[in-house]
């Protein structure tokens, strides 16, 4: 028997509670993992809130990522005792996730714990940090080099934004950080941002084209902020769009695309193919300053995760939340 959190369907919506589960409750899969660390991601906070249709099947153990040790394996790539990490693949949405002491999954979804990272550090990075790396790789692949100009990171005090800021600065980019939390200026600058942009400047619908300021952007906010980011891209600029913390809608014009050759590049971490996944994790292990990662992380015991989740939807979490299962 082991502990976990479960989302169940009710007549009025859903109910979330702590449960005692057994291995026979777990879904199909060829690898059983003892989960040692998990995290709280924006999508998890949405899943437990019931405000968005994240959960596709009930009952569901949420938790879109975890790190742990293989307990049993019928998959030739993994053996008992291997340290592994999982992000994405619909885990915590349609397949039971990481908010339990054990998880049974398809071995092809796992990656070996990258050399140089502990399980705790891997989850301090988590889906948010992994996505930040994918955003950096997207800008690079589109030819955005540090000499091209400044890069704007939105939602900079949050999980994706914090890691993106640190990675871009480490790789020689000049980072401008858009935030609604001026009180986090020192923190964001310690991560490597050169200057802060007030979120209010991008909060309301602006003109189709504004002064071209940014060679690249990592956007986690969507909505009006993304529309304004697009309008403010410099000629040939690239926006890596990965989030919707400020809204799912996007009301914009074609002006940035047809007059400035701007590229809007989507970034998805869930179905990201394996080779790209491995490259991203290796690069995170090598390029992310682990002292800065420590500074981004708040550790929360498993018993408090449901209490902390709503703060994330209110934009009140700084950096990343890592959850200890012990
Ligand atoms: P966090 O909650 O840690 O950070 C989001 C940040 O966005 C906040 O800290 C805040 O930054 C800003 N923000 C929040 N609400 C608003 C608002 N209403 N208007 C403008 N800015 C706002 O979340 P994550 O960083 O973990 O995730 C960010 C987004 O990326 C989410 O939408 C998430 O679903 C998405 N995501 C997508 C993935 C993918 O595969 N595409 C994977 C991982 C995440 P500040 O206080 O600095 O302004």
Topology:
Blueprint: E1 2-10, E2 13-21, E3 31-40, H1 42-49, E4 65-73, E5 83-87, E6 102-105, E7 110-112, H2 119-141, E8 151-153, H3 159-170, E9 175-179, H4 185-191, E10 195-198, E11 214-219, H5 223-231, E12 233-241, H6 255-260, E13 263-266, H7 274-287, H8 290-296, E14 297-301, H9 305-313, E15 320-324
The structure holds NADPH dihydro-nicotinamide-adenine-dinucleotide phosphate (NDP).
NADPH dihydro-nicotinamide-adenine-dinucleotide phosphate is lined by residues 41-43, 127-128, 131, 155-161, 179-181, 199, 220-221, 225, 242-246, 267-270, 312, 315, 317.
Description:
- The strands form 3 sheets. Strands 3, 4, 5, 6, 7, 14 and 15 form a 7-stranded mixed sheet that branches. The protein has a 6-stranded parallel sheet with strand order 10-9-8-11-12-13, with helices on both faces.
- The chain folds into 2 domains: about 1-115 and about 290-325, Quinone Oxidoreductase, Chain A, domain 1 (Alpha-Beta Complex), CATH 3.90.180.10; about 125-265, NAD(P)-binding Rossmann-like Domain (Rossmann fold, 3-Layer(aba) Sandwich), CATH 3.40.50.720.
- The model has no long low-confidence stretch (mean pLDDT about 95).
- The longest helix is centred in the middle third of the chain and has 23 residues, at about 120-140.
- It has helices at about 40-50, 120-140, 160-170, 185-190, 225-230, 255-260, 275-285, 290-295, 305-315, and strands spanning about 1-10, 15-20, 30-40, 65-75, 85, 100-105, 110, 150-155, 175-180, 195-200, 215-220, 235-240, 265, 295-300, 320-325.
- The two termini are about 15 Å apart.
- With about 325 residues, the protein is of the alpha/beta class.
- Bound molecules: NADPH dihydro-nicotinamide-adenine-dinucleotide phosphate (NDP).
- NADPH dihydro-nicotinamide-adenine-dinucleotide phosphate binds near residues 131, 155 and 242.
- The site of NADPH dihydro-nicotinamide-adenine-dinucleotide phosphate has 32 residues, from helix 1, helix 2 and helix 3.
